[in-house]
Amino acid sequence: MSEKYNNIEKNIALCLEKITQVQRVLLWDIAKKENLSPIQIQFLIFLKDHSDNLRRVSALAEEFDLTKATVSEAISNLVTKGILCKFRMKEDRRSYILDFTSYGMELVKRIMSWPDILVSHIKKMPMKEKENANLFLIELIKSLFNDGVISIARMCLTCENVRKFSSGKSFRCDLTGRSFTYNDIIIDCDNYRSFR
Prior knowledge:
This protein has 196 residues and is mainly alpha-helical. The protein has helices at residues 3-6, 8-34, 38-48, 57-64, 68-80, 102-111, 116-123, 127-146, and strands spanning 84-88, 96-100, 162-164, 170-173, 179-181. The chain is 52% helix and 10% strand. The strands form two sheets. A three-stranded antiparallel β-sheet has the order 3-4-5, with no helix packed on it. A two-stranded antiparallel ribbon has the order 1-2.
């Protein structure tokens, strides 16, 4: 049998690409409907769930691994369309915090339904399979982060606030005092502080 058909690692990578393709299609469908680019949709989704310190062009550039010029252009377009507005930061008058207009808030509520199809299919899977997939994906993200492939992981296992207990299966956040296991790891945490 050829390597193509018995290489589980390659199959997993190809499966992840298929899921990424589904995400792109779902985002593209919304983008076309709302007359926005897929990256603008991703920016809006990110901005909705994050605090002021991450609602800046420089933070978006870092988070999405894009140049500030690319992010600025997309954001300017969102401001022109009346979706976002800019507020000068008090501590640094050269920087802006991005926020939603009332129209932008209505729009982002519609956009936030994009993963519903994926979530509905994931819900059908047995709990043990979901737990194993969750653990696998978390460890994969951690490994990619540790090797520098991902510059910002924004999850508990790559955060300097988190301590692992000696058992190896439970953790504690020094910032919030929360104790948790792999199934409770937060992805995309606002309190994230990279240990790099």
